[in-house]
Amino acid sequence: MEKMKGYLMIAPSTYDALRDELASRHDELSKRLKQIAEYALDNPNDMALETVSEIAERAGVQPSSLIRFAKAFGYSGFSEMQKVFRSHLVENGSNYKERIRSLGRDDSCQSNSSSVVLDDFIDGGIAALNNLREVLNPEKLEQAVEALVDADVIYLTAQRRSFPIASYLSYALAQLDKRCVLIDGNGGMFFEQARSIRPGDVLLAISFKSYAAEVVQLVKETKSKDIPVVSISDGILSPLAQHSDVCLEVEEVEVHAFRSLSASMTLALTLVVALGRALDQAA
User: Which ranges of 160-261 would DSSP assign to H, the alpha helix?
Assistant: First the structure.
């Protein structure tokens, strides 16, 4: 238990509590501690199993910074924080990232066959979908659907790799007769297209690392106007998550240097079907 700013800070006793604390205090951390926080959330298995020196090397920091990081969150030292990560590892079995890292790891067993590549992407998609089942918060999903049901107009925005998800949602929502506007930035008119967002509307934004700057900016501006924002992104430290009323987390697998949209499109389809049912009930 660390004394901070005149009061005793109680160290989070579970991984979920620690994860929430890392997210809520992320902006106030120093650059070095932010770096460690991001590494810790991306690599919980490493935090659970590796030594201080090994983690420090991989995170690109000094070992003393890890100890300072642990104390900043109320722990007596790094070993006490590490117990939280170890408990999480035991509870969750094999880690998602470890499973996907194994894809294509044994080059000696691979050939140039296109079917091998197909198998790798299928395995990656299955891993991503299983992870979505495990990490998606049902309450947040319900909150997102409720926000969309109540919206006068749903504004959709995404760029680059995320754009197909927004495009599909635009098509599907139109089939539900739900008014929507796709902010696609065609002709360099991204922010001009967003000017018509009004109270009573909802912005549904989608972006993953490396986050599209224009999408992040629009999310911040919309939130500052007290207009609800629902986002789909890849982690609790995502700039979309930090400025959204509801953020649905989804993480895709990287296979052969490409990331599919298997889990993201499944989540989008889930939103459409759930919204359709809610609209039927409200009719």
Answer: 163-175, 190-194, 213-224, 239-242
The CATH number of the domain holding residue 245 is 3.40.50.10490
**Overall number of domains in the chain:** 2
The average pLDDT across 181-199 equals 92
Assigned token pair, 67: 């100890």
Cα(59)–Cα(182) distance, rounded to whole angstroms? Answer: 39
* Token pair listed for 224: 């500052």
| The domain boundary residue, chosen from 58, 92, 126 | 92
pTM: 0.74
Q: What is the CATH number of the domain that holds 22?
A: 1.10.10.10
Q: Which residues contact 75 (CB under 8 A, 6 or more apart)?
A: 2, 11, 81
> b/e map of 1-16 (b: 16 or more CB within 10 Å)?
eeeeeeeebebbeebe
Structural domain for 156, as ranges: 135-282
Selection from 63, 36, 37 nearest residue 51 by Cα = 63
pLDDT tens by residue, 239-261 = 898 899 999 999 887 777 778 89
